Amino acid sequence: MKSPLLMSLFDETERRPLTVSELTSQVRGAIENRFASVWVEGEISNFKAHTSGHWYFTIKDEGAQLRATCFRGTNCRIRFRPADGLQVRARGRLTVYEPRGDYELLVEGLDPIGAGALRVAFEQMRDRLAAEGLFDESLKRPLPVLPRRVAVVTSPTGAAVHDILRVIARRTRTVSVLVVPVRVQGEGAGAEIARALALVNAYHRAACASGREREAGVDAIIVGRGGGSTEDLWAFNGEEVARAIRASGIPVISAVGHETDFTIADFAADVRAATPSAAAEIVAAREDEVAATVEALTRGMVRAIGYRLVNERARLQEAAMSPGFDDVRARLRDAARATTDLAHRLEKLIARVRERARKKLDAAACRLSPERNLARAARQRARLALARAALDAAATSRADDVRARLGVAAASLDALSPLAVLGRGYAIAEDENGRALRAAHESSGGARVRVRLAEGALQCRVEDLEGA
């Protein structure tokens, strides 16, 4: 039996050398087929988050290391941020980066070892936002003393909204509730909660801008849900929810889960409530205090008024039994008689005034009767006709006078007109510049002269001067 090695020496296909690219491509295909899905445990080192959003790092143990890449479309679903020294379990597929001939792991899933991924993500998010100052106490806003309207951002079908409504209905009569329904768990729930917070703030600003802040404004927001696992509460650990809470212009109460549950929303909110019911009690607590205070003051006032009535009744009895009380009764009788007399006099005076007013009204009605008005209108029309005739006569006379004066002025003007003189056989001589010649010496022999007649003009040349 011949050896395969010896046979390959005489095989033309086997004797042809491969290029580096061909060999690397075949190795890549073999590796990807063999390790299409693999789990790897180790320690992260040389972690780098590229500006493109991709993660590049190395997974190593005591004896070897493996390059790893996690693309942006994948790492956005990982709930924590890797760091050097962190023990992880990575799931992915092996491939070969042909330009360098290195094989690497394309990471599709990543979990920390020794601590839950959600806990690591929670701590990283909390520390990073705290370093930004997002949780500073100086940013916390006080709740209104007596809120009128409270917005509740939660699931409309969960137990939390029913607990809140029940507590508020039991403990207060002045607070109205505006329920903003959102999903409180699952993919996209955090973004939905952040949008709901922005929507409540926009609604409040619109109410203030329209002058309806007292009727439609929102004084506080409760955001939360009932208890559940860490995964169930994870929507309230998102950065977008924390930033939406801090961006809110309305104070926010975080009420997520049970008393032992803590979320990023609890740190960002102005007030943390242990449970949704506790949040409702916080909202209604001031009204209970005010109501108790008012009730105590009312009881004290009733007692004080009772004591005052007893004292005044005793003083009144003493005054009624005193001798001066009879004098007061007599004065009251005299005052009553005087009042009666004055009332009679006032009635008589009113009757006289009414009679005079009626007579004046009758006289005015007589003056304003239709017959008198018609007669007065006829007289006025006659006077108007006479005035119009006189005005027409005066206007005609004035027009004739003006027409006569205009004729005289026209005749005078015609007598003085140079054209009239020309019409009688005279002429006007002008030099070349159009200046009228009054004496022979104003021209010279051979000069051109224009002689203007009544009709037309003559262009002449001076032959001789006489009397110059």
Please explain how this structure is put together.
- By secondary structure, the protein is of the alpha/beta class.
- Among the domains are: 14-114, Nucleic acid-binding proteins (OB fold (Dihydrolipoamide Acetyltransferase, E2P), Beta Barrel), CATH 2.40.50.140; 144-290, Rossmann fold; 421-461, no CATH class.
- It has 14 helices and 13 strands.
- The chain has helices at residues 4-9, 12-15, 20-34, 72-75, 117-132, 159-171, 189-209, 213-216, 239-247, 264-268, 276-321, 324-367, 370-416, 418-423; strands at 38-49, 55-60, 65-70, 87-97, 102-112, 149-154, 176-181, 220-225, 252-256, 271-272, 428-430, 448-452, 457-461.
- The strands form 3 sheets. A 5-stranded mixed barrel has the order 1-2-3-5-4.
- A hairpin with a 4-residue loop joins strand 2 (55-60) and strand 3.
- Helix 6 runs parallel beside helix 11.
- The chain starts with a helix and ends in a 7-residue tail after the last strand.
- 18% of the residues are buried.
- The model has no long low-confidence stretch (mean pLDDT 82).
Quick synopsis:
By secondary structure, the protein is α/β, with parallel strands linked by helices.
Tell me the overall shape.
Answer: flat
Return the structural class: alpha/beta
Q: Could you please say which CATH topology of the domain at 144-290 applies here?
A: Rossmann fold
Low-confidence stretches: none
Level-2 CATH architecture of the domain at 144-290? 3-Layer(aba) Sandwich
The helix fraction, in percent, is 40-55%
What is the terminal separation in angstroms?
163 Å
Major sheet size, sense and barrel closure: 5 strands, mixed, barrel
CATH superfamily of the domain at 144-290: Succinyl-CoA synthetase domains
* Tally of helical runs: 14
| Residue fraction in strands | 15-25%
Strand line-up across the major sheet: 1-2-3-5-4
